[in-house]
Amino acid sequence: MNNKTRILLFTLITVLPPLAYLNSLENTFVYDDYVTITNNHFIREWRYLSAFFNQKYFVISGELTYRPIVTLSYFLEYALWQLKPWGYHLTNIIIHTLNVYLVYCMAYRLFYNRQSAFISSIIFSIHPLFTEAVNAVSYREDLLSATFLLTAFLFFLKSNRNAGRRDFIICYAFSLCAYLFALLSKEMAIVLPFLILAYDLILQKGISLNTHNTPGWHYLNQKTSLFASLARDRGSVIDYPSLIPPLARGDTGGGKKPFQEKRFLQGNAIMRLVTRYTGYLVVSVFYLYLRFSLFHNPGESSEFPGNSIFANGIMMTKALGYYFKLLFIPIPLNADYVVPLTYSPADASFIVSVIVVILVVVLSVKLCLLSRIWTFSILWFFITLLPVMNIIPIINIMAERYLYIPGIGFILLLGSIFTQKTFVNKCLLNVSGNILNRRVFCIASITIICLLLTWGTMSRNRIWFNEFTFSTETIRRSPGSFRMYNDLGYYYYHHNGFIDAAIQAFRDSIRVRYNQPKAHCNLGAAYSLKGLDNEAIEELKIATRLRNEYPEAHNNLGLLYKRNGMPDKAVNEYIEALKTSPYYADAHCNLGSALIDQGRLDEALSELEKAVKIRKNFVLAHYNIAVVYYKKGQMNEAYNKLLEACQLDPLSADVHISLGVLYLNHFHDNKKALEHIQKALRLNPKHRQAEEMKKVINKLTSAEGKP
């Protein structure tokens, strides 16, 4: 392959992923982005980076598990883009493009065939199945984990080839560091040592080329060569030796040996094993200690569906069957797959899934008998899928993003199959003409496939445009998705003020699944906004009964009690909210406001200062501190706090009213008092004190007109 062709391939690999995802730059924040980005005030202040090293991490990140690399990326992005969604989507596209290049590098290291590597990477770059991982900002962990996992594997391959102690140590150290970063992005990267072991057993014929004289490795070489004998004995259509990748034969096809004669990993087999795997074992144990001891989240789910291992097995079999279907036919795609809880093995969908799984396993075994590359690709898929098969209970039973890393194995398999001469010849039996015509036919076929995949990806990107398009489409695919009804209600509540539509959506969510506190809490908030306080209080009480440690529900109850003249109950609810969420700035602020009403000014000031310490730009907390100072007769302190609040939010009518009152009654500056009160009225003509402001303005205006 000449340099021009290589440049063309590299250009296509670099350009196609951004083109396929270009229209995603118009998308807004959706799904869990509101928790991790929009409503997460902690990522806006660098001082909270210290929380990465203690239990505060789960408060600031919105994550259920310890994934600091992902959270760090949000800190960096907020510094760059603030809350501009296109910046976050651009970052995801860049990471995905990098992953495409890493897939190409890994495929080439395995195949030593640029055509196979190119096809694999291109299919990976534009396959619609991976759109969830790229479009969902809050699920970036799959992208980052793939980046570091592939990097670690590539450095492992490089350390496996390099001569000399120094080069080996450098590559091996980089591999271990990348492995740790992959784990700190998402825990499913724990499978890397098993991928390395599979590589050694399947593609290496032992640990090195110098194993034929080493006791203990003769059987391993015989074992890996068993694939070739089985393939020949079964009379395979495909000639196995032509499929053995150059990496396994010790020949790159270009006269270069991928293994050096002198290597650092020499000596007996046991020492090589120790040197090779100890580092990965140490990193794995270190991470598991972090994950399940130092940074274990008590709120993490730990139950199987229906509290039944048997039911879990049935559900995961159905999920596995559907995963296989999505790999081959990626339509329809869905952001929230609802796998019905089933206890009976006679369930029709379970039986169909079992048949699909058996067929895929049989096909996989047949492919494994034909090629080591195919064996490794298939093992890559199954090994990397294990962490998301609910062996350790996870919240979401099934999701497309779970296939982002396992799908690489499937893509490697396709890339290898599509470039095999036997496969190509079979496909071209009816294509007459010379080699040029057949080549044109192959290129045209691959181009059509790529165009179809790109169209599918771009169409899917539009579904993620905003919460409305996303939720309605998902509900259409999964009418039993209580989460999507809840998210649709959230969209109506916050974006368009369609309170009746929001209430209906929250009711639908509760209808689908009653025992979910979030929907009850949101329905209570919607009732409150409509003035239905009794109904709101009832829904919020249900939410707290379903989940006692629910700070948002307790906080909202406190607001309603305060509004209905029950300050003692309000204070109790705020305290309950802070018991489980001590860094909940809104609850501190609301508690301070309730304490002001009770005349407990010193306690109120303490709570309000905590709110400001947690969130420096919390305008309402600054304003309430000014109120405390005003009530205590400390006018200068109140004035300074109001100025600070005005700088943070110059469009706050309440702040301008208070400044006007201070200028009028304390500083006796009628001109500035008039200026602030007029501005407050312009900002909010329907303010509850609008009539009083008009009277003051008329009085001050008439006073100015007097000689």
Mean pLDDT: 84
Oligomer: single chain
Radius of gyration: 31 Å
Q: How much of the residues is beta strand, in percent?
A: under 5%
The class by helix and strand makeup works out as: mainly alpha
Task: Describe this entry's structure for a reader.
- 69% of the residues lie in helices and 0% in strands.
- By secondary structure, the protein is an all-alpha fold.
- It has a domain at 3-259 and 268-458.
- The longest helix is centred in the middle third of the chain and has 29 residues, at 435-463.
List keywords for this structure.
707 residues, elongated
Outline:
This protein is mostly helical and 707 residues long. 69% of the residues lie in helices and 0% in strands. The longest helix has 29 residues, at 435-463.
Helices and strands in order:
Elements: H1 3-20, H2 33-38, H3 57-61, H4 68-81, H5 85-111, H6 114-126, H7 131-135, H8 141-161, H9 165-185, H10 192-203, H11 218-233, H12 240-243, H13 246-249, H14 269-294, H15 309-328, H16 348-368, H17 372-385, H18 406-418, H19 421-427, H20 435-463, H21 467-477, H22 482-496, H23 499-512, H24 517-529, H25 533-546, H26 551-563, H27 567-580, H28 585-597, H29 601-614, H30 619-631, H31 635-648, H32 653-665, H33 670-683, H34 690-705
